[in-house]
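For reproducibility, we list the full input for the 9MR complex.
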Amino acid sequence: MRSSSLLRVLTLLGMLLAFLVPATSAEASGPLRTHAAGRGKFIGTALATGPLSNETQYRTIAGQEFNQVTAENAMKWESTEPSQGQFTFSGADAIVDFATQNNQQVHGHTLVWHSQTPGWVQGLNATAMRSAMQNHISQVVGRYASNPAVVSWDVVNEVFDDNGNMRTSFWYNTLGSSYIADAFRAARAADSNARLCINDYNVEGINAKSTAMYNLVSSLRQQGVPVDCVGFQGHLAIQYGFPGQVQQNLQRFADLGVQVRITELDVRMQMPRDATKDTTQATYYRNVVNACLAVTACAGITIWGFTDRYSWVGDTFPGEGAALIYNESYQQKPSYTAVHDALAGGTSTDTTPPTTPGTPSARNVTANSAGLTWSASTDSGGSGLAGYNVYREQGATDPLLGQSSTNSITLTGLSAATQYQVYVRARDGAGNLSGNSPVATFTTTTGGGPGPGGCTATGTVQTQWSNGYVVQPVTVTNTGTSAKSGWTVTVTLPAGHTVTGSWNAALSVSGQTVTARNMGYNGNLAPNAGTTFGFQVSRPNGDTQTPSGYTCA
Ligand code: 9MR
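The corresponding predicted structure, in tokenized form, follows.
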């Protein structure tokens, strides 16, 4: 055969093969940004100006894979106004230029923060500090206000401490919490279109700190302060577990009318890296991406860098690292595949179900709620463990009682004085379900029984710390046979405890009795229907008591 005919035959064979062999999966190819854009989200990275200016591979991946960028350090106060009135924008401009060339949107980070702010700001008196803050915001935001690449700003960053109290930073100590509203107003004055965000860490799941953030955002918006976005940093670590109820948390903020976004995602591990840790890390990345995908108001996900070659983690947490989606030599890791496949809509190639979870054990059983914990499953099929479904064993069709991304759950909305037989199945990223765990049996308590108004109320302490706690949810259930158009719940606080905030109910306090009445939007309850509200309490340091004696009318 002449070589040209051989070539023709081979070409034809190639075309035939390309036609017959389906692409391994749509998600096996295409950069992250293509898939994210297809889902109406951004996928971003923090950029460091050093490698951006002198490493081709860094620039190439940053430009090809991401459609959003955040300056890791170049827009912070110490970079943009190192001494009073002396503005330097070389690093910030380099990032905005790169983004413009690569058709990427820029999130400005960050205007008002307690860290990386020069000493001259920290020493000012209140009047001078407020005007320095307003001037800084006006200059920095103003510089990019008409630049179409720069679409959003972290106006204030990390205003809470780890317990969800206001951080006693120099800002707070000098200006009180008023600096927060002032900062947002100054940013709005400098750019009437930019999306203005408040950003923090350890607020990804539902906990005391995220609840404090929720209450702050809600109250600022009620006062007309232009907060239109909440950033959830997402600095996670596999050794501390995946945060609880991330999707629900994003959704409760979205329900306040704000945009939400994951702003600084990374998932560190104790070094050295190994395949098991990589798989767990990939699951964390996938879960975060899936939570954002599931919430319409979630604009996207920014990863805090992309290569393990450049990450803040090793410097800050000795012995930990490997937190990103490319290794030090720019090879994609399982976490890259997880982000990729989640954005692309899951992989269809995994048909291996996760292992069967262990027998659930029940705790904190009340009249209408129960906690369950079980030993975790593992998944080897490639798509990773996505979570668990909890079912009630009931015969032909077993109803789904709840879903969890971790190996525990609090079931709510249960009937009082009723025996439940429940089991758990694990789910992977491709939707494969494991076998059924062994069944656990528990019986709900009689509780207060139907109150005078034909309703019950039970409260769960969701998180507590030495001098406070969050009661969430308080579940109000109409146990009568006719609809209710309003409800009143009372509960007794231990001596010395005081309410510091509440949501989804109007609270009044007399002595130690808290009376909670429905809001306009959650008073109507059909028979068997329920609603929830929550409140936060401070208590004397070291006191471990919690409220009791819920009644409903
Ligand atoms: O990644 C940033 C690192 O290079 C800086 O040295 C550090 C200084 O505090 O800030 C890091 O980024 C932080 C971000 O600006 C705000 N949230 C936490 C991030 C990690 O510390």
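Residues 361-443 form a domain with the Immunoglobulin-like fold (CATH 2.60.40.10). The two ends are 93 Å apart (CA to CA). Both points were considered when choosing residues for closer inspection.
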